[in-house]
Each structure stands twice: as C-alpha cells, then as structure tokens.
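Board notes (copied after class):
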Amino acid sequence: MRKLYLRDHATDLHGTTIIRDEQGQSCYLLAGKWGLHHDVLSLYAIDGQLLAEVKQLSLGLLPKFGLYQNRQRVGIVGKSFGFVRQVVYIRGLNWIIVGSPLGNRYRVFGGGKLIFALKPVRFSGSYCHELRVTNRQDEPLAILIASVLDHWSRTGQIDTEKVQFRNRSLAGNCGMGYRLK
C-alpha cells in the first residue's frame, strides 16, 4: 500500500498542486479549478502526461462530477446528504465511499476490497491529506476523488466549535454521539 500526500488544492496560489510520496518525491501534478459548471481538475504525471480528469457536471446543493481516464468517462460521483457519516456510490466504477465529512476521513471500497483511504495529517510541517492506495493503477482516480471529497468538506464546512460530542471517546473519530450547541 503506497502513501501519497496532497495539499489543499484550493489554497495553492500557483494553481497547481504537487502530490508527493512518503519520501517527499514528486509523483503527480494536479492543475485546474473548481466552482463553475464544466470546470476541470487535471492530473498529470511528473513528465507531463495527462492521466485523468474530473469535470464538474452540475452545480447546486448536490453537485455531480465526471471522472475521466484516456479522455473517456469512467465514472460519476455525486454528493449525497450526510452530516456525521456519509455513503456515496460512484457510478461506472462501482466503488463506494464511506466516511465522515466532519473528520474528513474516508475509505473507498470496490468489490468488497479497500481501494484507498484518506485522512488529514501533518506532513513536512503543513496540513495535507494522506492517501493510502492499494494498487498503483488506481492512484490517478483516487487522487481526483480525494480532491472532490476535500472540496465538498470545505464548501459545506461545519464550525466544529458549535458541535459538542456527548461521548468524548468518540470525538476523535466523529462517532454518532453529537449535538449542536
């Protein structure tokens, strides 16, 4: 299982984000923007080869994004309602995303097996996301899906100061015991 680290693409002033491995080596380049209908994020290999893209297909409360490899659409991911726990189905790939928008921790399964897991960590002195991918050929789509999940968590961000956990032992993994202040 390989670990990749990606910074928050929205806060990068250069419009591109470099995805690094555990040794800090550059592996991929993520370029593009969010926000408007048909906006695109493109993932490139370090040598400049286009590997995959995610295109915003719709706007609104429950936006949809198309996942593309070799210029062919391979899947569609759409936001679902979920406050503490969220389950999202990726059509075309037959993958299921299970996770917590509050903790920004997700696991993605396909065919009963873990495809990748995503969690926030500190890496090289800054906040980023750790992406643990089971198979290398799934890395491009995993990076793009992680970018979509990060985008959703920021746009619908909940003020954690207003959330009070009933059971403090569950506060770290965003368990079901919560209430709004």
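Comment from the instructor: The longest helix spans residues 139-155. The chain has a mean pLDDT of 80.
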